[in-house]
TrEMBL record:
One Pfam family hit: DHquinase_II
Annotated pathway: Metabolic intermediate biosynthesis; chorismate biosynthesis; chorismate from D-erythrose 4-phosphate and phosphoenolpyruvate: step 3/7
Similarity section: Belongs to the type-II 3-dehydroquinase family.
Reaction(s) the record says it catalyses: 3-dehydroquinate = 3-dehydroshikimate + H2O
GO molecular function list: 3-dehydroquinate dehydratase activity
Site (Transition state stabilizer): 18
Protein name: 3-dehydroquinate dehydratase
Subunit structure: Homododecamer.
Protein function: Catalyzes a trans-dehydration via an enolate intermediate.
GO annotation terms (biological process): amino acid biosynthetic process; aromatic amino acid family biosynthetic process; chorismate biosynthetic process; quinate catabolic process
UniProt gene name: aroQ
Origin superkingdom: Bacteria
Species assigned in the record: Candidatus Gottesmanbacteria bacterium RIFCSPLOWO2_01_FULL_39_12b
Length: 147
């Protein structure tokens, strides 16, 4: 069975309480349930991790990527400047899909910079929690084609 790491960066533990206009009202637990339902149907296992600390995210990737087939990640604000996290993803040498609830290309100028674009097979913006479900679907289809 294929295994996917589902990683959320800083402040995403607060989903549901954050700006509803940008991020919607869905909590991270609810996003997780939706992803679990997709994974069950597509015969995949998910390992979830959220941290507000870049180093902890890197430790998780280094510690778990050998036994994983792919990574789904929302790096939060690290998207715009988190080059150590970006390098950890590159070093993991796994297919990565990056997801964002909001449309980072149409917000403040600092959000237009995406340090993760080059290390991702796909970047999904602006579909609120559907960015995650779409991203997982794309990733599962991608790794199943590789098999
Ligand atoms: C985000 C966008 C980032 O700019 C922001 O810092 C977040 C969430 C998103 O999912 O839209 O924390 O990654």
């Amino acid at each position: 069975m294929k295994k996917i790491l589902v990683i959320n960066g800083p402040n995403l533990n607060m989903l549901g309480k954050r700006n509803h206009e940008h991020y919607g009202k869905t909590t991270l637990d609810q996003v997780g349930s939706k992803l679990r339902a997709i994974a069950r149907k597509m015969d995949c296992s998910l390992l979830f991790f959220q941290s507000n600390h870049e180093g902890s995210l890197i430790d998780f990737i280094q510690g778990n990527s050998k036994e994983a087939d792919a990574i789904l990640i929302n790096p939060g604000a690290l998207t715009h400047y988190g080059y150590s996290l970006r390098d950890a993803l590159e070093d993991a040498n796994l297919p990565v899909v990056t997801v964002h609830l909001s449309d980072i290309k149409n917000r403040e100028p600092f959000r237009k910079i995406d340090a993760f674009e080059e290390v991702s097979i796909e970047n999904i913006y602006g579909l609120r929690e559907k960015s995650y479900t779409k991203g997982l679907d794309i990733l599962i289809k991608y790794i199943n084609k590789l098999a």
